[in-house]
Write a structure and sequence with these properties.
The protein has about 350 residues and is of the alpha/beta class. It is built from 13 helices and 8 strands. The protein is about 40% helix and about 15% strand. Strands 1-2-3-4-5-6-7-8 form an 8-stranded parallel barrel, surrounded by 8 helices. Strand 3, helix 3 and strand 4 form a beta-alpha-beta unit. Helix 8 packs antiparallel against helix 9 and helix 11 packs parallel to helix 13. This is 4-hydroxy-2-oxovalerate aldolase. It is an enzyme of class 4 (lyase).
Length: about 350
């Protein structure tokens, strides 16, 4: 098969020790879901300071649904994400600040605004079979001189072979690393291994491979270790597992586990444990947990950020959230279809009312 041409190499290839893992902390982006997007500037500064002192190389900051996510559909931010990114950049002494952008939610203008206040890593996220929509965003990020990372969300929805071809599309567009993103926490051990191995085989010489795990089935850390063993060089975590759904692989556990395995992360483990316990834990109104709804998300393959939307619909219409999520998984809805959750709740309510009527 003829492969598409690759973009010119950038000068970002030195950022990962060849034998180790570069850890990106997403407490201030994916963790924004658990905070209902209400991070304050002071809180962002405190978290960045703690992570930076612990040696975390990359810290992601944005609305939970990425740049431009502050809206009626996804939830309004308490503080402008650009202001939060600027504060993070100002606070960090060695870490670089990353942003996430979902084409269709955020725009190239949002990316330029984030770069304008100092963000230097652009993570462009698409559904796992729609990598082609990311081309202009990678081009814009490369033109700005940003490091570029691709996110293939809901990776369980594509076979390893299909996912590898989607990664090839992102690399051709300018991605310097492509992530297998287990957005639903649905990948079970070998499933994660197979997808990471397929990407490494497909793009390994031209780009790095990363892994972003969720905890719905309590496999975020195990899958991250297996990803590293298959050749992944970048892994995501979040302090206290803060993230959508059941949360992300906890940064502090990832660092401790990789240290036990003798795999360098460059992160001070006691420092990052203090960051989780003393800085983030007191700020969090609700820790992510593998409750019934979160487990259903994992088994039904439901996008993690749908959890809070389903819980709100459950409160409003009196239908259990886990039933809404099960039906959403059966329908195959993807990120950006949050509004369909209301339709599902109403349908379940009608079904329940019909079943309760005397025959």
């Amino acid at each position: 098969m003829t492969q598409p041409p690759l973009p010119a190499p950038s000068d970002h290839s030195e950022i990962v020790a060849p034998q180790g893992i570069r850890l990106t902390d997403s407490t201030l982006r994916d963790g924004s879901h658990a905070m209902r997007h209400q991070w304050t500037e002071g809180q962002v500064r405190a978290v960045v300071h703690a992570l930076d002192r612990s040696g975390v190389e990359v810290i992601e900051v944005a609305h939970g649904d990425g740049l431009g996510g502050s809206s009626f559909n996804y939830g309004f931010s308490g503080t402008s994400e650009i202001d939060l990114i600027a504060a993070a950049v100002e606070e960090a002494e060695q870490a670089r600040i990353a942003v996430l952008l979902l084409p269709g939610v955020g725009t190239v203008e949002d990316l330029r605004a984030a770069h304008g206040v100092g963000a230097s890593v652009a993570r462009i996220a698409t559904h796992c079979t729609e990598a082609d929509v990311s081309a202009q965003h990678f081009a814009a990020a490369r033109a700005l001189g940003m490091e570029t990372v691709g996110f293939l969300m809901l990776s369980h929805r594509a076979s390893p072979e299909v996912l590898a071809q989607q990664a090839r599309t992102m690399v051709a567009a300018g991605a310097e690393c492509v992530y297998v993103v287990d957005s639903a926490g649905a990948l079970v051990l070998g499933d994660a291994q197979a997808r990471v191995a397929a990407l490494v085989e497909e793009i390994g010489p031209q780009a790095q491979v990363g892994f972003h795990g969720h905890q719905n089935l309590s496999l975020g850390v195990a899958n991250s270790v297996l990803a590293q063993q298959q050749g992944a060089l970048q892994v995501d975590g979040a302090l206290c597992a803060l993230g959508a759904g059941a949360g992300n692989a906890p940064t502090e556990v990832l660092c401790a586990t990789f240290e036990r395995l003798g795999i360098p992360t460059g992160v001070d483990v006691p420092g990052v444990m203090r960051a989780a316990e003393d800085v983030v834990r007191p700020l969090v109104p609700r820790l992510p947990w593998m409750d019934r709804s979160a487990i259903v998300q994992g088994t039904a393959g439901v996008y993690s950020s749908f959890l809070l939307h389903a819980e709100r619909a459950a409160d409003r219409y009196g239908v259990p959230a886990h039933r809404i999520l099960q039906r959403v998984g059966e329908a195959g809805y993807v990120g950006g279809q949050e509004d369909m959750i209301i339709d599902v709740a109403l349908q379940l309510l009608r079904e329940d009312e019909a079943a309760a009527r005397p025959s």
